[in-house]
Design a protein that fits this description.
By secondary structure, the protein is an alpha+beta fold. It contains 6 helices and 23 strands. Strand 13 and strand 14 form a beta hairpin. The longest helix is centred in the C-terminal third of the chain and has 20 residues.
Length: 390
Amino acid sequence: MRKIIFLLLAVIFLTLNTGSSQTYVDISKTGTCEQAYDISRFTIFGPTTAPEAVGSDNNQSFELVKHPTWYKFTIQKSGILLFDIIPQNPKDNYDFILYSATDNFCEKYKKNELKPIRSNFNPQDNLKGITGLSYNGEEPDFEKGLMVEEGEVYYLALNNVFKNGKGHTIIFKQLKTITLTGKVLNNSNDKPLKADIRWLNLRNNDLFVSSQTEKKGSYEIDILLNNQQNTFPKYELCVYSEGFFPEYQIFSTAKANELNNNEINFKLNKVVKGINNEGLGVIYFEPNEASIVPVSEYVKRRLLIFMQLNEKAEVILEGHTNGLYPSTDIDYELSTERSEVIKKYLVENEIDASRIKTEGMASNKEIYPIPETEEEEGFNRRVEINIVNF
C-alpha cells in the first residue's frame, strides 16, 4: 500500500513539474561562427538554454572565450538597430561583438581579418546584467545604436564569462517616428512660455529628443518610439521653463503609439520661495507608515526633475503626522522618517544631500486638527516642500 501511495505522489509531482516548466531554445550547437543560429524572423528570441563551455578560439576578439554563442540575422526593415541582451540570471556577465557579414565571413574571422562594428565587455557592476545597443549608448553597459538597411546581414557573438551560468533572451527594438504638438502656458495668466521639451525612454533614460517652444508657446516635435507594443519601455514627455516647476506625462508603449499628431498642452506653475503646496504639490503617506501613497509618486518625481534641472535649488522637507495634540515622540519620529524617505530618494538619484534638509513637525501643523473622515486624516499625513533657494 505504501508503495502505491509513493508511486502516485511521484506521478503527481512529475506532472506538476512538467506543466510548470518553461520551454527554452536549445543553443548547445551554436558555439562557433559556422554554427551561427539565424534569428532574422524574431523580435524576441529566447529564453535560451545555457551556452556550453568552449575553449579559446583562434580569433582574439574575446580575450578569453569560455561560453560563446553565435547568431546571424538579416535586417527586415531599414532604421536604427537596437537590441537588449537579457540574461536569465542578472549576475551572469555577457559580452557581445557585432560584425557586418562579408563573403567567407567565418574564414576571415578566424584569420583576424575583420573588425567589429560594435562591442561591449559588460562591466562587473552591471547589477541588472542587461547589455546591448541603445539609442545614445551613453550607459556603460550599452553601445550606440546602428543605422542599418533592409537586407543587410550581421553576425552577433555572445560570451558569458562565468561558468554554471544560465541562458538569455534577445529583444530587437524597432523605432518609428511620430509627431507631437501642443502649447506651454503660464498657469496663472495663460500667457505663452518659452520652454524646453524632452522625450525620454524611462527604461534606460535615453534622451531621444529635446526641443523648445516657439514665441507663442507652441511646439512640434518628432519623437522616436518603439512600435512593438508588447515590450516594456515607458516614455516621459517633460516640459520645463526657468523659474517654473516642470510638468510631465508618462506613457506606456501602447499608449505612446496612439499619440501621433495629438495635441498635448501644459500649464506651468511659477516657483516661489517657501511652501509650494499649490505650485509643486504635497507628498502624502499611508497611515502609520513612511510609505508614499501611489498618487503622490507624481509629485515625488516632479520634485526630482526640478532639483535636477535647477542645480542651485535647495529645499526643506517638512514631515507631518495625523495624531492627537500634544505630539508624542512617535509622532516626531514618524514625521522625520517621512521627510527622510523623500531625501533618500533624491540622493539616490544623484541630488547632493547638502541641498536637502529635513524636519519632523509631528502633528503640530495638521490641516485638519480634528479630522472627521479618513480623507481628512490623509491630508495630515504628508511631506510639504519648502523652497529655500532656486
